[in-house]
Amino acid sequence: MYIDPDLLAELNEEQKQILFYKMREEQIKRWHGWDANLDKGVSKMKIKAKFQHNNSKHIQWLQGADGDVWVWIMGEAQGDKPYELICEELMAERARQQAQKEAEEQWKKKEAEIEKKFRDAMAKEKARIVAEKWKVEIEDRKAAKQLEKKFQEELKRREDEERRKEEEQIRQREELRAKELYLSLKIAQQQNQKNENEEEEWKEQLRKSKEADEDRKHKARWARAEYHHQSLRAIQKGKVAGLSNLFQSSMLTDGQELGQENVTVYPLLKLHVPVGKSWERPSRPISRDIIIRWFKEEQIPRQAGIDKNTGCVALWFHGIITREMAEELLMNKLEGSFLVRVSEKIWGYTLSYRHQTGFKHFLVDASSDYYSFLGVDPNRHATLTDLVDFHKEEVITSSGGELLVEPCGQVKTPPDYSMLFE
């Protein structure tokens, strides 16, 4: 689905519309094929599930009074809180429970540390008392017991005080954690809403794209119908040569034209047709020398660019000149002036046309045994001269109304097509 930018630049807007419409049709065709293959895969999965063992798990939906699946839309039933308030409360409760769970785990670890700390301190103190033999040194055993009890009470007081401090710190951390979790849930909800809005925007863009496709499809159908009507009118008028028998032995050989026994040879440039083994044409022009060879071996036998009445090179025919050179030749001409030049983009020609506000360029395909515009004119012409004569009677595009009126000739000597006929 790639179009060479240089080739695309040679097409006018109507040609581009028809080309893009054809590309869109191909994309839709491929998508339908992919979708059909996907549906086949889903059907196979359903058939496989149907023949599974009876002990496999099943889901049975709760049904309402109407027989359909029972559905409760949160926040819309009678007595329900608004959906936003329910979401806020759920997020706050979820954050509180998570923070409480984390705080309980922290407290268990801290309580074990405190118990171990004071248990070790008590064991150490008892060991010191035994080591120093306080009971032996102090005659009053009761005093020793009181001293030990007092020490235990002091340790207990310190233990309780440290517990309270740790509980307060854990409670503060729990509150902070609850706020953090709430904010994270709030951000996630906002992100989901943003994604939903983006999805709505994407659906709107898709709808507009489909409408544009339909519009292009309508324009393309209308253009084809209009061109068909123009062709019929031109044939009925009988003013365009060769239209009724375009493909009845349309190839010209030995310097003779269809429907004529003798053709006058161009007096200044001798038409030389190379004789020998047919050459293999590249897929597209790659050099000026290749284009010249193509013209000599394929176009000269078909009398391309030759005036039917005089047998000379037609006034409107030009050689391998650029787009800028063609526009320079047509710059001071009246509307309807035109010339036909050998294209460097395709195996064919470019018809350059002068209209009120500027210039138009139409590619003419000559790769087969007929001549026709790319993307605009569906009519096939036996010769290049037939195509030009046809559009002296009928417009090229119905929207632009381009009618070929005045041919633009040469301004230099030798003419720019001289190398083609050497």
TrEMBL record:
Signal peptide residues on this chain, from the entry's feature table: none
Coiled-coil regions listed in the entry: none
A Pfam match: SH2
GO annotations of cellular component type: cytoplasm
Key words of the record: SH2 domain
UniProt xrefs under PROSITE patterns: SH2
UniProt cross-references to SUPFAM superfamilies, sorted A to Z: SH2 domain
Bias kind Basic and acidic residues: ranges: 203-215
SMART domains hit by this protein: SH2 (SM00252)
Domain SH2: 316-408
Residue numbers spanned by region Disordered: 189-215
InterPro entries given in the database record: SH2, SH2_dom_sf, SH2D4B_SH2
PANTHER family named in the record: SH2 DOMAIN-CONTAINING PROTEIN 4B, T CELL-SPECIFIC ADAPTER PROTEIN TSAD
Protein name: SH2 domain-containing protein
Taxon lineage: Eukaryota, Metazoa, Chordata, Craniata, Vertebrata
